[in-house]
Structures are given as structure tokens and as C-alpha cells.
């Protein structure tokens, strides 16, 4: 999320009531979680496992619960509760805006777009030429839908990211301030859910076709001309390169990359990044030919034992 106005890291630390380690005059241009950070961004980290990753990421500013060595050109904000302070910042720069009408403020909707009855359109939404949105769809704040896209009935585009921190009294949700970007010629089936980015973009690439009742998590990037069948579940921060096919009920863990042209057969479970140009099957999935040989071997062992 880009914060627009000019804020120094010193001013942000003062707002939080925290101290800075490093140059307080450096300018913060954005706020992002670890998977999508860029130079000028502020990121939070509250677990030793990720200290090094955060400090040496593209982020210029690190909201952290321990003082560590600061690389040149970066600065830290020391906080006992980095998650809570991060939420304070995202709520400050992207506050929740209640909405009482079916179409929000500051929307840009092409005259040729067709919005069926009972569609909810949030604030700051952009809808391109010849877009069709069927009844009951929800289009969340900031969503961009390019031309010739079809959104199926009761699809949910841009709801909150599923991102929580476990605390002694339950779970605290990270405030979502990202959005969804849908490129041209995309089709999204009935009842499909595409979560908003936590602080960046969940993107669906040009020409991709998504079946009914599919779940796509926050900050996931789907490439061009992908094919995703019914009941697929894709976690957050996944990257599907172009022309990936996922057949029904495939499940995919977060923070992996599926290479261009990969095909994942039905009911497979993806637990690691996969190379492109291959066919995969099983849970955890492997190359389909190898997996089939393994299953045949197990079947033969069972049959021999019975004999």
C-alpha cells in the first residue's frame, strides 16, 4: 500500500510512540507485509525466524521487537508489539469506510458494463468496458476489473485477507488495505472468492478462466491464460505463472511458485514450488508418471501379500 503523503520514519515512530534506530529523516512511501515489499516500504516482523529475512528484504523500514544491526540506508522502529503497531498504521492510512448504498464513492464504471441487480460495488472501484457482473456479486473497495471480464453470481471479489495473529485471548485479524486487480478477458465462476491483498494486490492475469467455488488467497498472483477448476483452494502469496492448469479440488500451500504450463491433476496437494511444463499428481504431489508408478508398486505389494 502506498501512503501518498510524505511521512518520515521519525514522524511515524512518533505517531506510534516508539523509537527509531537509524536516520529519522528517511521518507516512508509504503506499508507492506513481507512477501510483497518494495524499496521505501515499511514491513513488520515479530519472530526471530524472520528477523534476517525482513531486515535484508527490499523494505527500507522494519517495525521489529528487537534491536538488530541496521543495514546501510535502512531504519528500524523498535516496538514490543509490531503486529499491533502495523495495524495502527494500516488503519491510519487506509481506514474502514462504511457504506450504506449498493455502489460506493469514487467509482469509475464504463457505460458498456452490465451490472445485474443486487450487485454490491465498494468504494474506489474501476470497471472496464463490456464487463458483466451477475446477481449477488460483491466487489470490494479498490477492485479493478478490466474489459470483457465476466463475474459469476455470488462471487466475492476483494473480501478481507485471511491473516491472523494468535494471542492468549484468541486471534487478531490483520487489517486488509490491499485490493484485487482483474485483467481483461477473465471469467470468474459462481460462488468463487478472491481475497484482497493484505497490503498489496491479488492479481488475476489476462484470459484466465476460474470455475465455480474456487478460493484464491490474499496477495496471490495468477498468470495469464490459466485454467482453474471447481473447488480449488489456493492459499495466500502464491504465484501461478502463465498457462497453469489446476483441476478440481487441488489444494495449494502459501508462498510457493507454480511454473509456466504446469498441470496439476484433480485432488492433488501442493506443498512446495513446482517446475513448469510438467504434469503433477498426488498429495504431496509429484510428477504424475512417478506417482502412478509408486501407486502401482504399492498395489502390487498388497496383492502379493494377500497371495
Automatic annotation (TrEMBL):
GO terms for biological process, alphabetical: lipid A biosynthetic process
InterPro entries: Hexapep (IPR001451), LpxD (IPR007691), Trimer_LpxA-like_sf (IPR011004), UDP_GlcNAc_AcTrfase_non-rep (IPR020573)
Pfam families: Hexapep (PF00132), LpxD (PF04613)
Coiled coil ranges: none
Molecular function (Gene Ontology), one example: N-acyltransferase activity
A GO cellular-component term linked to this record: membrane
Top-level taxon in the UniProt lineage: Bacteria
Sorted UniProt keywords: Acyltransferase, Lipid A biosynthesis, Lipid biosynthesis, Lipid metabolism, Repeat, Transferase
CDD domains (UniProt xref): LbH_LpxD
Residues in UDP-3-O-[3-hydroxymyristoyl] glucosamine N-acyltransferase non-repeat region domain copies: 26-90
Alphabetical list of Gene3D superfamilies matching this protein: Hexapeptide repeat proteins, MurE/MurF, N-terminal domain
Name this protein carries in UniProt: UDP-3-O-(3-hydroxymyristoyl) glucosamine N-acyltransferase, non-repeat region
Annotated source species: Fluviicola taffensis (strain DSM 16823 / NCIMB 13979 / RW262)
